[in-house]
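Key result, reporting period 2: structure in, sequence out.
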């Protein structure tokens, strides 16, 4: 195997404060093709089992194993005393069998001795309850004792294994922000004050940004500034927003401390596993700048009958955080998980289909939690690559077959997904919108983001996610489902995008507040006035269960004219300033008023949707916006190729790889010509994909 990092397109310039040694745009060492493996926790088993595990890994085609993630107490059984013998034998065993090692730093699970020695390092909840030992999660990320201990064990690992020939990737911690995101301890209090001093410089600036003149909250001394813990009524929302930023910063500072400790002794790439859209406490745009390789964990929502759509959504966000570079699926499940209310097992073929969805959307590594199912502990009912039923089971047969599939797809590695449509996502805006006392509890940033994404997915449109501050010039269409918090600079960026010829679609409750959760001067939506040709005079949210009818009159050349759409939850009283009316409220509190508008600015158009349309309504808006954007969603598909058939393309080295995933119950046909890689067959004109199956066709680009 080649032990040199595979070069990738650089993610971004190195952020301020990052050591010069920090590298970006590389890939895990020695992992060629599409990597395959998962978390391996051999400490749960007698050592004589290890050889059998490795033999079965080779049978399954496993190329990497993630080890050590939960092993702090085994590596450091007493403070400052290290025992590496067991890990030496494990790493050498994997290396001897050609299996690359992803080495975890075990700092997500401080040992019992740490809790006993440093009880003040425990996390304290917003209600003032200290959390103790016995679960998963971390102690206070602001604790100096935790930082010191974490860096110490990480340094010891880096010194010992940093140049080991088996090492492919460093895996720092585990799922930052889950289950612990916010901490209200004394350590957090002092760190929060320091963070605020660095952010604002003076109390006068803090008072101004937080609007403390309201309710007499003005601070006269830094020692008066507390944490936004539980209080008699609603706590200052600007403070709550800053505390979310601070909490994310503290977690990221823990990562950076470990990363830099590793980098002092090893030049092997470093990652940590994100949870795109599943963990709302981390700003992945900020985190993505700190890792060498972007990786993600994803678990299906068993209650969602179309969870293949949210899987694709998480994969697209992960790829976007990686700025288009291939990424690492660190964890998902072979079948059921153990922590949802109803843990539905995957159907035959679903393991393969789910896994190849991630590959289709840019993953160059597929990992599972975990290799061998646990007999004890909280996750003993979680599925695994080697289940309790053993090698005679369906799951094991599918694990082995999927390893062979990835062997056929080796050439796909390094290719990229290209998108002409972007969906805006800003975690800070979601934090702000999710606070108390908003106009309607039914307005949710994730709900609208999911809905607009689902409509695009149903139209077979591949999308990137983007931050409102990003360069959007490569996209023909940009959708802003939930931009409640929008800075003046970001609004200007969107306005320039429209004027330069872009098509922007903005959903309701957007452009309302600035970065301090203060309403923009000029009223609701004021910073988008030029782009949309309107402002919002007043919100008109609906009562629970109420709906409105919307008459769609259509835009120029719109074949969906003169039909009625349905909506609920929200309406707006709009003051038009150049925008044309595309749809009108038939009834409700704004009967006769504009519901959907379109505005020409420069060479582009800005659309505004002032109500929560259902999926059919969103598709009507998108159909018209596609025309403005010069886009032609995939059509001319064969029989059975409806919304349950997913078509995604990866490109590279002059080749086009078309992934067709049939999530439906009927066979589907897709017009494509080339070589089908999974079966080795030739496709000439039409590809037939049976229900539940996947095909990957290579053709010249």
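The corresponding designed sequence is given below.
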């Amino acid at each position: 195997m080649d032990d040199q990092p595979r070069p990738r397109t650089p993610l971004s310039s190195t952020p301020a404060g990052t050591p010069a040694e920090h590298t970006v745009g590389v890939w895990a060492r020695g992992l060629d093709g599409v990597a395959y493996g998962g978390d391996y926790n051999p400490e749960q088993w007698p050592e004589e089992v290890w050889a059998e595990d490795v033999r079965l890994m080779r049978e399954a085609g496993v190329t990497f194993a993630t080890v050590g993630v939960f092993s702090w107490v085994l590596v450091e059984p007493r403070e400052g005393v290290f025992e590496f013998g067991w890990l030496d034998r494990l790493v050498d065993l994997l290396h001897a069998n050609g299996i690359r090692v992803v080495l975890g730093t075990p700092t997500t699970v401080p040992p019992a001795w740490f809790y006993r020695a440093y009880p003040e390092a425990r996390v304290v909840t917003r209600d003032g309850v200290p959390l103790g030992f016995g679960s998963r999660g971390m102690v206070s990320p602001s604790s100096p004792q935790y930082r010191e201990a974490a860096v110490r064990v990480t340094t010891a690992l880096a010194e010992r294994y940093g140049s080991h020939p088996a090492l492919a990737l460093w895996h720092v911690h585990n799922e930052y922000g889950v289950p612990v995101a916010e901490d209200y301890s004394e350590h957090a209090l002092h760190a929060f004050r320091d963070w605020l001093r660095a952010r604002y410089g003076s109390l006068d600036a803090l008072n101004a940004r937080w609007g403390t003149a309201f309710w007499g909250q003005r601070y006269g001394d830094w020692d008066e500034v507390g944490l936004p813990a539980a209080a008699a009524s609603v706590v200052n929302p600007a403070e709550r927003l800053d505390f979310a930023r601070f909490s994310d910063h503290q977690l990221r500072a823990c990562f950076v401390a470990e990363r830099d400790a590793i980098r002092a002794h090893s030049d092997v790439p470093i990652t940590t596993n994100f949870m795109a859209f599943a963990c709302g406490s981390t700003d992945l745009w900020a985190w993505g700048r700190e890792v060498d390789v972007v990786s993600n964990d994803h678990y299906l929502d068993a209650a969602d009958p179309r969870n293949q759509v949210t899987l694709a959504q998480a994969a697209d966000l992960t790829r976007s955080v990686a700025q288009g570079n291939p990424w690492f699926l660190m964890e998902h499940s072979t079948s059921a998980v153990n922590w949802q209310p109803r843990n539905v097992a995957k159907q035959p073929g679903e393991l393969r289909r789910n896994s190849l969805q991630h590959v289709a959307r840019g993953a160059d590594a597929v990992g599972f939690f975990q290799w061998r199912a646990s007999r004890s502990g909280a996750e003993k009912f979680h599925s695994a690559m080697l289940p309790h039923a053993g090698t005679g089971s369906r799951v094991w047969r599918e694990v082995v077959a999927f390893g062979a599939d990835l062997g056929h797809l080796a050439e796909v590695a390094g290719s990229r997904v290209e998108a002409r449509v972007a969906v805006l996502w800003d975690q800070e805006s979601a934090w702000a919108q999710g606070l108390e006392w908003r106009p309607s509890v039914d307005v949710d940033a994730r709900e609208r983001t999911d809905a607009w994404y689902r409509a695009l997915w149903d139209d077979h449109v591949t999308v990137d996610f983007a931050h409102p501050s990003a360069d959007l010039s490569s996209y023909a269409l940009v959708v802003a489902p939930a931009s409640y918090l929008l800075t003046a600079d970001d609004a200007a960026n969107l306005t320039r995008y429209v004027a330069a010829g872009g098509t922007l679609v903005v959903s309701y409750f957007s452009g309302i507040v600035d970065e301090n959760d203060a309403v923009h001067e000029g009223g609701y939506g004021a910073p988008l006035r030029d782009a949309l040709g309107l402002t919002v005079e007043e919100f008109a949210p609906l009562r629970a269960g109420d709906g409105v009818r919307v008459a769609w009159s259509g835009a120029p050349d719109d074949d969906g004219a003169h039909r009625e759409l349905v909506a609920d939850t929200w309406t707006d009283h709009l003051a038009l300033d150049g925008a044309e009316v595309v749809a009108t409220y038939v009834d409700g509190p704004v009967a006769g008023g504009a519901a959907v508008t379109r505005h020409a600015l420069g060479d582009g158009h800005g659309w505004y949707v002032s109500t929560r349309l259902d999926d059919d309504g969103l598709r009507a808006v998108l159909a018209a916006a596609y025309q403005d954007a010069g886009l032609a969603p995939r059509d001319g598909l064969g029989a059975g190729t409806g919304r349950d058939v997913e078509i995604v393309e990866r490109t590279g080295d002059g080749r086009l790889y078309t992934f067709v995933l049939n999530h439906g119950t009927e066979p589907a046909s897709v017009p494509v010509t080339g070589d089908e890689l999974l079966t080795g067959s030739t496709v000439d004109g039409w590809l037939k994909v049976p229900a539940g199956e996947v095909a990957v066709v290579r053709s010249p680009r």
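The first strand starts at residue 35 and ends at 39. The chain has four domains: 1-69+88-181+251-308+327-349+357-375, 192-240, 421-629, 645-700. This case is discussed further under Risks and Mitigation.
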